[in-house]
Design goal:
Structural class: mainly alpha
Shape: globular
Strand order of the largest sheet: 1-2
Strand content: under 5%
Helix content: 55-70%
Distance between the termini: 8 Å
Length: 340
């Protein structure tokens, strides 16, 4: 018996529930790492600008630093930290343990639906392509899954999820930056479309796609390959955790230059278009790469490799192992007498 078999598969709704559980758990476990990073940067006055990036383990979000953005300034609280461990201890002791999840709530409004859309789309695409690839097999023959299936399914699912959510993330950021009420959303959208055209709703999507699509393709290909080494379509929690962590680390290393460029472009888009009254033209991706190379050389494109690995690998491991366990859980729930 295999969960890949159509008669044993869980439904898309159950897949959504499994990915939602994984998304919440990932955010709860990974967010403190980014909160500590932001507090350390604020201490060094790196965030003395109009905006900064906040990551909850699922998505990057642009957040404003100014007094008029409607956010609680948790990142500006006083504190002298001598490193990551010291920051964890002092924030927990002096501000309460819940301070390690500062700013998490508002970011989950979009990141959880995005993760659900991404994982369910991936599963549906992968299974459909696998069926088409094996449609000529005789009954009883083992169905194969070549490496290109998870690669294409992962890349396609990411393009779909990012394209759907990008305008919503832009609206969310715009609302926070200018305290726009819900009644003013339509007016704000009309103004944005009038100034930049319909494609203005997807401003900043290119750097996101250039990082996330290769990452997803590399990640899913390696995850499915590692999982297949253990000879089961239903991996244990430990196997999926290990495979997810390794695949996430490989994908993170391979896409570091894209991450560096994306970070620079997102910050620039935030400062020059979202958190200002006089929008300015932003640099193209090529111009950003040239500027990084000019100031920091080739090594500049691989800046932040270790922090990225520390955050991405555990997030991938937690997310995929929870998702895989969720699929088995829902199957057992619907089939209590199963031996799975």
């Amino acid at each position: 018996m295999s969960l890949e078999d159509p008669q044993y598969r869980i439904t898309p709704v159950q897949q959504a529930a499994a990915s939602c559980t994984g998304a919440i758990l990932t955010s709860l476990l990974v967010t403190p790492l980014d909160v500590v990073k932001i507090r350390l940067q604020a201490q060094q006055r790196i965030t003395d600008q109009r905006c900064f990036l906040y990551c909850n383990g699922l998505m990057d979000h642009i957040c404003g630093c100014g007094p008029g953005n409607g956010q609680k300034h948790w990142f500006q609280r006083p504190g002298r930290f001598n490193g990551t461990i010291d920051a964890f201890l002092k924030i927990s002791r002096n501000e309460g343990i819940y301070s390690l999840w500062s700013g998490l709530g508002p970011t989950l409004v979009l990141s959880i639906p995005t993760t659900i859309l991404y994982f369910v789309s991936y599963e549906q695409l992968r299974l459909k392509m696998k069926e088409v690839y094996n449609k000529k097999l005789q009954p009883g023959q083992e169905k194969l899954q070549p490496h290109w299936i998870p690669l294409i399914a992962g890349a396609s699912a990411r393009v779909f999820a990012v394209t759907v959510v990008s305008p919503l993330e832009l609206i969310r950021t715009k609302m926070q930056s200018r305290k726009i009420s819900y009644s003013e959303i339509t007016q704000s959208l009309k103004l944005l479309v009038k100034q930049d055209g319909v494609f203005g709703l997807w401003r900043g999507i290119l750097p996101t796609l250039c990082r996330d699509v290769p990452f997803s393709a590399i990640y899913w290909m390696h995850y499915e390959t590692i999982k297949s080494f253990f000879g089961s379509d239903v991996p244990s929690f430990g196997v999926s955790f290990f495979a997810g962590g390794v695949a996430g680390a490989v994908a993170a290393v391979a896409t570091v230059p894209f991450d560096v460029v994306k970070t620079h472009q997102q910050i620039e888009i935030g400062e020059k278009t979202l958190y200002t009254d006089t929008p300015q033209k932003t640099k193209s991706m090529i111009e950003v790469i040239q500027e990084i190379h000019r100031h920091n050389g080739f090594r500049g494109l691989f800046a932040g490799l270790v922090p990225r690995l520390v955050k991405v690998a555990p997030a991938c491991a937690i997310m995929i192992s929870t998702f895989e366990y969720g699929k088995v859980f829902f199957y057992r729930l619907a089939n209590p007498h199963s031996d799975l």
